[in-house]
Specification:
Strand content of chain A: over 45%
Structural class of chain A: mainly beta
Number of strands of chain A: 11
Radius of gyration of chain B: 14 Å
Helix content of chain B: under 10%
Strand content of chain B: over 45%
Distance between the termini of chain A: 37 Å
Largest interface: A-B, 23 and 27 residues
Largest sheet of chain B: 6 strands, mixed
Number of helices of chain A: 0
Oligomer: heterodimer
Structural class of chain B: mainly beta
Number of strands of chain B: 11
Largest sheet of chain A: 7 strands, mixed
Distance between the termini of chain B: 41 Å
Number of helices of chain B: 0
Chain lengths: 118, 113
């Protein structure tokens, strides 16, 4: 149980285009999902917290107009990288906290999406 | 905000030896401390976690200790095996509706034969 999927697993795009990444909780409902960015050999940096039915909360320094987050249902959150540039190339990972979990409890991670912007 | 420091950044041990990774945190209100294992190109996987009302927790070869007074917690892996080789991340969070994980910088563990 507690499986999180991400799609696509890899994407290569040209500068200036937009890319959408989906994060799904497959066997549980999640009121809260998180989006992280990870550079090679570095730690996970939280970009934003996504709550179903409300606006995402972005971390300091993360451009909300560039990284659009939508959490339309209890099993799906999407991250859209708008007008992508080479510096946006990274490993993007989502996680989900199951509905009813003690706040501050376990998060289950997706397999990640490797974005390369040419 | 919370700041989590993790040491060492790399650790090499021989198979069968023990490995210890240490983390410190800054927010005294943090009370949830998970440890994740991440293999290259894969997702982080929770291996053990501890809450602030517990000082130690063990699961087979893995144990975590927490010293809330000193604001540090440690991961102990005994009888290491080659498949333990990976990057390990500690994290800290407050409980509450707005809680979020702050990760340490990671430790690359290499278990050699």
């Amino acid at each position: 149980g507690a499986v999180v999927s991400q799609h696509p697993s890899r994407v290569i795009c040209k500068s200036g285009t937009s890319v959408k990444i989906e994060c799904r909780s497959l066997d549980f409902q999640a009121t809260t999902m998180f989006w992280y960015r990870q550079f090679p050999k570095k730690s996970l940096m939280l970009m934003a917290t996504s709550n179903e039915g409300s606006k995402a909360t972005y971390e300091q320094g993360v451009e909300k107009d560039k990284f659009l987050i939508n959490h339309a249902s209890l099993t799906l959150s999407t991250l859209t990288v708008t007008s992508a540039h080479p510096e946006d190339s990274s490993f993007y990972i989502c996680s989900a906290r199951p509905l009813g979990t003690v706040s501050g409890g376990e998060q289950f991670f997706g397999p990640g999406t490797r974005l390369t912007v040419l | 905000g919370e700041n989590v420091e993790q040491h060492p950044s790399t650790l090499s041990v021989q198979e069968g030896d023990s490995a210890v990774i240490k983390c410190t945190y800054s927010d005294s209100a943090s009370n949830y401390f998970p440890w994740y294992k991440q293999e290259l190109g894969k997702r982080p996987q929770l291996i053990i976690d501890i809450r602030s009302n517990v000082g130690e927790k063990k699961d087979q070869r893995i144990a975590v200790t927490l010293n809330k007074t000193a604001k540090h917690f440690s991961l102990h892996i005994t009888e290491t095996q080659p498949e333990d080789s990976a990057v390990y991340f500690c994290a800290a969070a407050r409980t509450g509706t707005a809680s979020k994980l702050t990760f340490g910088t990671g430790t690359r563990l290499q278990v050699t034969l």
